Amino acid sequence: MFYTTDTNHHGLAHDPFKAIVAPRPIGWIGSKGRDGSLNLAPYSFFNAVSDKPKLVMFSSSGHKHSQKNARETGVFTCNFVSRNLAEKMNLSSAALPYGTNEFDFAGLTAKQAELIDAPYVAKAFAVLECKVTEIIEPKTLSGEATDNVFVFGQVVGIHIDEAIVTDGRLDMTLARPIARMGYMDYSEGSDVFEMIRPKV
Q1: What's the domain count of the chain?
Q2: Residue 141 burial (CB count, 10 A)
Q3: CA–CA gap between residue 48 and residue 10 (Å, rounded)
Q4: pTM for the predicted model, two decimal places
Q5: Over its length of 200 residues, how does the chain's per-residue pLDDT go in tens digits?
Q6: Checking CA distances to 66, which of 1, 38, 80, 176 falls within 20 to 30 Å?
Q7: Is residue 8 part of a domain?
């Protein structure tokens, strides 16, 4: 099978693009509005994009509440999504009106970040406190504007629950991170194996 994305004639029941680019980590973004309202939302277009400096990025189609708050306040948190919080993460994805507290809606406790004015999930095994470095609205090959918004943030503080630390390393068999697959599918990253890079 081969098809071009300008026509997207793949002949399948659903677009396979996001199933191919999988698994994708989930950026569970905590933010605060200028009005003081708290927001929490998951993004499957998310990743770490640099280690030095530590940079992360999340994006979505359209100007969502997280992007609005990040643009206005310059900060956000990224909360680690473990299997035990999967259902609450899913609840926080509901399309609620701006100003509605998704922490409350999902039955989660919000805590205030240490270095930035943004909330985070109290029960998350790990949290990244981030300051916005840039916001990009990408264009197509022909130079046309898209409806996408990319928010980049530099990590300035990291919370880690020592319950998931074993022998000085984060133990993924304890943390049990989940990732987004295609369609409505998720996967759990507890089946961990190690490979050492070859030396040439």
Answers
A1: 1
A2: 6
A3: 31
A4: 0.94
A5: 999 998 999 999 999 999 999 999 999 999 999 999 999 999 999 999 999 999 999 998 888 999 999 999 999 999 999 999 999 999 999 999 999 999 999 999 999 999 999 999 999 999 999 999 999 999 999 999 999 999 999 999 999 999 999 999 999 999 999 999 989 999 997 677 889 999 98
A6: 176
A7: no
Which residues, other chains included, contact 55 with Cβ-Cβ below 8 Å and sequence gap of 6+?
48, 49, 133, 152, 153, 154, 155
Radius of gyration for the alpha carbons in the chain, expressed in angstroms and rounded: 18
Query: Residue 29 sits in a domain of what CATH number?
Result: 2.30.110.10
H/E stretch holding 129 reads strand 126-136
Can you tell me the distance from the alpha carbon of 167 to that of 29, in angstroms, rounded to the nearest whole number? 29
Q: Is residue 195 part of a domain?
A: no
Residue 97, domain extent: 24-188
Bridge-based pairing of strands 55-61 and 24-25 is unpaired
